[in-house]
Structure prediction request, 426 residues.
Amino acid sequence: MHLRMEEKEVPQTDAVRAKLGRAIVITSGKGGVGKTTTTANIGTALAQRGASVVLVDADVGLRNLDIVLGLESRVKHHLLDVLEEHVSLDDALVADKHSASLRLLAAAQSREKEDVDTEKMRALIHTLRERFDYVLIDCPAGIELGFKNAVVGADEAIVVCTPEVSAVRDVDRVVGLLGNAFKPQLIINRLRPQLVKKGKMLSVEDVNAILRLPLLGVIADEPEIIVATNRGEPLALREDAPTGAAYRAIAARVAGDDVPAPMPSVALTFFERLGSMFGGKRS
Amino acid sequence: MIDFLKKLFGHSGSSSTAKERLRLVLMTDHLELAPDMIDAMKRDLVDVISRYVEVDRDKIDVTFEQQDKALAMLANIPILSVNRANGQPAPSVAVAASAEPAPAAVATAPAAADAPAPIKRKRRRRKKAKSQGVAGVPETAPA
Ligand SMILES: Nc1ncnc2c1ncn2[C@@H]1O[C@H](COP(=O)(O)OP(=O)(O)O)[C@@H](O)[C@H]1O
Ligand SMILES: [Mg+2]
Prediction:
């Protein structure tokens, strides 16, 4: 029972696209900052807008993206099966549950990053660009071979950073390694506006005073994300969730829409509410 | 009144500590990413010191480390012999230079640093080479 690319949303194997799709690597240097969560959510949001999207889990040995998308039971083949030509690309692409134009190419769980042939990876991403509007590549942590292989076929980069010294330092390093060719854009993840306000967390401005990257958007530290991951349903699908809206806004910006970068808001404190009640009317 | 309350309840935090640490750590990182520059600096340093003493060029060790609020450059330069009969022979010269890192350097993306022009030799003789020097560069106001 193989999943074939027969839905009209996704171009056929031999269909020649007028223009190559965009291959965007989602990277950070540091692990656990939200690359996989970000990849799943932006991919979902782009697909919900009608674009054809394939998500490539390049974190060979530590497969996660299928879990976040709730697709783990559908994965039969993986990236290395395709690179080593054991199965066809069509056989390895997994159709998403929620978005008709979204596909996943899972990573091999029981293999190592060193098993990936860099040149074959480059060729595969190119093939995917011929068939999809967006190829989002979920990069492993680190700056070694796994990083190199994740980046090799990409032409753009999204870097994910949390407001922590170590994460900013690692992003700085990664951006240095990428160079300008990848036009890196920044997502700040797990921001806690209340802590920023109290001076207990680096602010968006603090982080970007150092990184100086175009800001795609800011995602709050949001317990709902963990719930969504437990369920395998990206928050980007949830109309009611503010963080879902933030992911949709980021996807819109990726697609080129002129919408503002999403920014988590601070719930007003008692005194501020008091202040705006009395002071607000005058201004 | 509101401002007063804000002051009372806000800004006790550690984010400024984080900012400062980040600034310093990136300064060091960027230095490490510019080995050309460090090599050139080593060369110039040795040239200057060689005017006074004969040093072991192969065993020179230049490192950078964080000292309090500044980045320090530590150079360990083994001395083979004193060229001129002035002063006691010392086993090595330690040169330390520390600088408040300038924000501009922090913000600059690592790039292949051009080797700085070699220091022009001044032919003026000094009686004694300073065995230790600490040079402080004034801090540029951070953004
Ligand atoms: N904005 C967020 N708020 C709360 N938890 C988050 C957020 N982003 C990611 N997480 C959680 O952090 C952990 C690491 O995220 P993940 O996307 O796997 O990071 P990476 O791929 O960079 O290693 C996961 O448990 C995830 O659910
Ligand atoms: Mg991951």
The interface with chain A takes residues 2, 5-6, 9-16, 18-19, 21-23, 25-26, 29, 33, 106-107, 109-110, 143 of chain B (CB under 8 Å). Confidence is low (pLDDT under 50) at residues 5-11, 100-143 of chain B.
